[in-house]
Amino acid sequence: MTSLTVGHINFNLEQVNQQFQQAEANQIVKWATATFGQGLAMSTSFGIHSAVMLHMVTVVVPDIPVIWVDTGYLPSKTYIFAEELTQRLNLNLKVYQSPISPARMEALYGRLWSQEDVESLNRYDQIRKVEPMQRALKELNVTAWIAGLRSDQTDHRKTLNPVSLQGSIYKILPILNWNSRTIYEYLVAHDLPYHPFFDEGYVTVGDWHSSRPLTALDDNERDTRFNGLKQECGLHLPQTLAESESLDSSLL
User: Fold this and answer.
1) pTM of this structure
2) 233 belongs to the catalytic site
3) In the chain, what are the domains?
4) Is 33 exposed, middle or buried (0-12, 13-18, 19+ CB in 10 A)?
5) Of the listed 41, 85, 233, 252, which one is catalytic?
6) Edge-to-edge strand list for the sheet holding 40-44
7) Which single residue of 5, 119, 152, 194 has CA 20 to 30 Å from 84?
8) 105-127 residue pLDDT tens
C-alpha cells in the first residue's frame, strides 16, 4: 500500500480510494479541500454539463481557482455560456491560452484539425490545450486538480480512481462514478443550466471544428469528437518526459 505525504498531511492512496468508492461527491470535494488547501484548483471546459462541477465545488470552496483553457476555436455559444456561468456562480476564473495565436498556428502548420490523422490532431491538442494547462498548473502552484471526468466517457477513464497522481499533481475526480441520469438530477435539483448545444443533439462539445451531434451510428458519445479518431485530448492523461519528444497517441 502506498503512503503519501502532501505538506504536513499523510494519507494512504489505496485506502482513500477504497473509502471513496461509496462516498458522496461533495464528501470527496470536502476531503480535497481539507487535504490540499491553497494548492487546490479545478478545471472546466464549459461543456454540456459543466455547471454541475462548477456549482458543486464552489459551494464548498467559493474562491477556488477555476482554470479554463480557451483554444480560440470554441463556438460562440460556449463563450456566452461561460460568461453567464461565471457571473452566476461568481467564479474565480483563470483563463489560459496558447502563446501561438490560431492564425499563426495555421500559417506554420496548416489547419491541423482538418488533416484527419492522429499525429496532426495530437500536435493541435499539444499547442492549444496541453501546454496552456500545464502552464496554468505551474503558475498557480497547483498540487491537486479537481476535474469532472466520468468513467463512462472513455476507455481510459474506466481505469481511473477517484484520487490519483498525474505526474506530480494529484487528480481528484468527485463524479467519476456518476452517469447521465445523476448529472441530470443534479442540474434539476439546483436549477442549473446546460450548454445550449444539448438541445441541438450534442452530448459533448469542444472546438467548433471537432464536435458534432450524436447520431444513431455512434457507439460512444466520444465518437462525436475528433472525427472519431481519438477519445482524449491529452489534458487528462499522464504527462511524461516522452511527451515533450513525441505526440504519440498513446499519451494524448
Assistant:
1) 0.81
2) yes
3) 3-199 (3.40.50.620)
4) middle
5) 233
6) 92-96, 65-69, 40-44, 144-146, 169-172, 163-166
7) 152
8) 999 999 998 887 888 888 999 99
